[in-house]
């Protein structure tokens, strides 16, 4: 597999970091979760059944080490000697205070790639602030633009900053650093700020603002409620039809489909006319059910789609054909469904291989590899420095 010779030490929890390392693990990297022996990754218990944890931590191993002890720090430094990548998501300075920050690790392994995923980055007045997805979107100015005109902003149902601003840029940054290491033999620090990366997403908004100085308003952006050709409309049966007819040919096809060719010249009409258009289109689409409109547009290239529920999505023929939802067998709870690796490589594709690990499942294996005897391992376990193995089978998905 593409990353089959890469070892990653993953100290992250919850969503951004684990999503990043999941991508690496899916393509062959040996990802070792370094978890606290008492609680581990908080995601193990977040939703009551471990499904969230299991989804993000497939194909990984778990080593449970108490990093606040001298013995735990020593173990981690030995592990870092043989690692290619370390990923962490603590606030700046936490790893340094533990004695296992980038400066300490690069002394034992100069070729190490160290990636820190934080809300605001390693520098600046906000570097030490706490935050979550909603806070990063707020500072970026993006949350202000979510929602309808003259109404309060709404919270998006997916974590844009966590994944788009944190996990994906982190994976890209790690890949770039590994690629550069092939030439220089040296590692480097990868500083991922979720705020920085969310701001970089606004490519349809910020260039116009920089050029004109005009502050966009909620519900008036071209691709966020400003144009009738790019909107969701309710049908007779309370369902929704999404229309993305931005280009003139698609708009013309849509207007013909609803029997209003007189709307065709109004594609780029002023904002007040767009609102009138939307009201008229809504009245028309309310006359038929979703199924009836889909039948009308079945062979029409108008960028018209049903707004699916999750149940409909997993049964959609396109989703089934692409095998994006796949099942994996778990020894204690049976079949678990996963979202398959979405990046498709023709020669070396990613794959689902092993379920998420139990807390500390691979501690003994790892310590043996770096030179600890079975007696030393048992003593460290007794002293509470490590957890190995999990005392008993846990019937929740997370183990």
TrEMBL record:
What GO MF annotations does this protein's record show?
transferase activity
- Top-level taxon: Bacteria
User: What is the recorded name of this protein?
Assistant: CoA transferase
Keywords, sorted A to Z: Transferase
- Record organism: Marinithermofilum abyssi
| Entries under InterPro entries matching the protein | CoA-transferase_III, CoA-Trfase_fam_III, CoA-Trfase_III_dom3_sf, CoA-Trfase_III_dom_1_sf
